[in-house]
Specification:
Strands 1, 2, 3, 4, 5, 6 and 9 form a seven-stranded mixed sheet that branches. Strands 7-8 form a two-stranded antiparallel sheet. The protein has a two-stranded parallel ribbon with strand order 10-11. 36% of the residues lie in helices and 17% in strands. Helix 1 packs parallel to helix 2. The two termini are 46 Å apart. The chain has 327 residues and is of the alpha/beta class. It has three domains: 198 residues, FAD/NAD(P)-binding domain (3-Layer(bba) Sandwich), CATH 3.50.50; 53 residues, no CATH class; 41 residues.
């Protein structure tokens, strides 16, 4: 469920964001982008590198460890709940969209506005091609599907092995925030050696998702001081009378707007009111917190073996009866 009213990044493309890879990095990035209102599709071939792990012992929040199948189901369930569409298919290529040339009115053709050519065409193995304004590479398979996106061919590095040259995706190609020299292309994996740890891969995906959101905000005219993004909720009881007043938020907004900006008054007002709506929506009343806690627990039960649930329920009932007799 999206928590904001952020408009789509663009209606020029099929999707705002296409993520290649449905493992921890890809799902983590998608949860952030989808929750911000961006139309997000995750292509997952079902062979994430995490599935080579026998049992995950060091993922925070699972003191008894977690089997990979259950974790994978939880990740995909969460991504879909956030608003992502998960497509079970292998991406074969990602290419730049080509600008559309305007028709010549002299020939009686209807005029067509050219596109900016800044998006991508994503070609899967089985399904139809789709277009996207931004692409997140979040899979460890060799990156061959991105070949040709960088005119400088800097994505790949050559290694000599036993007298033969081999090309590999350069894990240092992207910046630490996932940005690359290719506008609109972000790398969540493959990257440095730390990516082999699942928790780090999920954190990397979150960082890339937030970077993508902030880049989109800048493109929509947000001044740099207002482009930062966070996704969390607070208790409504922390919202005092001063901060329930929209005018107080307006004052804060204008204090952060730089003196030199290129926005019209109408554009500035639109961004301001949208940002105030977003911030106020992060304050949640107590009864809603309780509802979300219960719902969260119930959703976890969907991924726990029924026999274990019944076994635990019987033990709880036995303990309660024993306590009642003792009292």
């Amino acid at each position: 469920m999206n928590t904001t009213t952020t408009p789509r990044d663009s209606t020029e493309y099929d999707h705002d964001v296409v993520i290649v890879g449905g493992g921890p990095a890809g799902c983590s990035a998608g949860i952030f982008t989808a929750r911000d209102g961006l139309d997000t599709v995750i292509f997952d071939r079902g062979r994430s590198s995490i599935q080579r792990c026998a049992h995950l012992e060091n993922y925070l929040g699972f003191p008894g460890g977690i089997d990979i199948e259950t974790l994978y189901e939880l990740m995909h369930d969460h991504a879909e709940e956030a608003g992502c569409n998960i497509v079970t298919d292998l991406v074969e290529s990602v290419e730049r969209t080509q600008p559309v040339e305007s028709a010549d009115p002299a020939d009686g053709d209807e005029a067509v506005e050219p596109t900016d050519g800044g998006g991508f065409v994503v070609t899967p193995q089985e399904g139809p091609q789709v277009t996207a304004r931004r692409v997140v590479a979040a899979t460890r398979y060799d990156g061959e599907y991105m070949r040709g996106l960088d005119d400088e061919a800097a994505m790949f590095e050559v290694h000599d092995h036993d007298g033969e040259e081999h090309e590999h995706f350069d894990k240092q190609y992207a910046e630490c925030d996932g940005t690359t020299p290719v506008d609109g292309l972000y790398i969540a994996a493959p990257y440095g050696e730390t990516g082999y740890q699942t928790s780090m891969a999920a954190g990397r995906g979150a960082r890339v998702g937030i970077t993508l959101i902030e880049d989109g905000r800048r493109e929509r005219g947000y001044p740099e001081a207002l482009a930062n993004h966070y996704d969390w909720v607070r208790r409504e009881t922390e919202l005092d009378d001063e901060w329930r007043d929209r005018d107080r938020w307006r004052e804060l907004f204008h204090d952060r707007v730089p003196d030199e900006h290129e926005l019209s008054e109408e554009q500035l007002a639109e961004i301001r009111e949208r940002e105030i709506d977003r911030r106020l929506a992060t304050y949640v009343p107590t009864e809603e917190i309780d509802r979300r806690v219960e719902r969260g627990h119930r959703r976890l039960l969907d991924h726990i073996d029924d026999d274990l649930i019944l076994e635990t329920a019987r033990k709880i009932e036995t303990d309660r009866r024993t306590t009642a007799v003792d009292n």
